[in-house]
Amino acid sequence: MNVGNTLLMELKNSWRGYFIFTLVVIIIIGGFIQIYPSVSSAFDDELDGSENIELDMAEEADFVVAHLSWIDVPNANNYTLLVGKSPQMIVPVDRVEGIHENEYSYIIPLEDDEQEWYFGILAVIDDEETRTEFVGMESNVERISVLEETFGIDYSTIHGFLSVLWRMWWFLLIGLYIVYISVISVSKDYEEGRMDIILSKSISRKQYLLEKFSVVALFTLFLLSIAGLITIASVHSLGELSNISASTLFITTLFSYPLFLVLIAVSFLAAVYFEDSKKSVGFTFLIVLIQYGINMVGNMSENLEYVKPYSIIAYWNHESMLYGEAINWLDVAVLLILASALMFIALRIFEDKDIPT
């Protein structure tokens, strides 16, 4: 029995494609992470100077008290409070001038309590001429960007930014290529008339299929390891490793491996069933896109979260791992069992099929 011959032959024939795709992944991941600072500032919904103001809301019998305190500005003669219902304050709802302390309690009617209120503080400075200096702005509501409200991701943090990469691009970027090379590795032997010659030698059908599977599985593991290291290096170059550890980044990346094992198994099942690369690639691409679509729909609203378990992506909970939560080994087991079951079915079909000559 020529153990490993099929594996080595597959590597010899495919290494150039594997190498090029690995470079593509390195460039995309490294480049994507490098745009984090500009994206972070663009999605930062903090009000200007909000760190300079403290706001406490206290409900009384007939009104609500908004107690504001702010930093003391040197040389400030007094302060002006602007009150509005939007952060623009083009025409404030109210204006309180001549505040001599760096705190003030503003009364809001109880019926208006649930509305959005914005409080801006100006320091009035009288040195050579009277001028105002903006101290900051605060609101009684927590500001959330549209994207964060829709997808539940805070883009302004490195954790949220990496979640975008893994939630929206990772599965498609790697998944579509993995299923393609998995299908082609078997289908080309059918279409080029080599299958009967290969199996006429001292190699069983089981060994043939498992060695083909091993090649793609080992490449995927290598690819994810490289991707994890590139992610660490890119995050380190931005000075963000103080916010998220290198081990967390690597482990989170590597634990997508069972997810791709399922895709590889689906691809081999399609390849031995259809014996045609076009049909097999079309089927597996459809599976990938359906799984991706289900996961995206489930992430868009809490009311739709019930569909997420029907997508294998949901069993790679990268968001919880990014924030240091424990790995869900049950989810890992589900994916490994599913991949094993699909490969078992593929082997049974392949062993029962007549090989065309």
What is the element layout, followed by pairings?
Elements: H1 5-34, H2 36-42, E1 53-59, E2 63-70, E3 76-84, E4 94-99, E5 103-109, E6 118-126, E7 130-139, H3 146-151, H4 158-191, H5 195-200, H6 205-237, H7 246-254, H8 257-274, H9 277-300, H10 318-322, H11 329-352
Antiparallel strand pairs: 1-2, 2-5, 3-4, 3-6, 6-7
What does this structure look like?
The protein has 357 residues and is an alpha+beta fold. It has two domains: 3-42 and 147-352, no CATH class; 50-142, Immunoglobulin-like, CATH 2.60.40.10. The chain has eleven helices and seven strands. The protein has helices at residues 5-34, 36-42, 146-151, 158-191, 195-200, 205-237, 246-254, 257-274, 277-300, 318-322, 329-352, and strands at residues 53-59, 63-70, 76-84, 94-99, 103-109, 118-126, 130-139. It has a four-stranded antiparallel sheet with strand order 4-3-6-7, with no helix packed on it. Strands 1-2-5 form a three-stranded antiparallel sheet, with no helix packed on it. Helix 1 (5-34) runs antiparallel to helix 4 (158-191), helix 1 runs parallel beside helix 6 and helix 4 packs antiparallel against helix 9 (277-300). The mean pLDDT is 86.
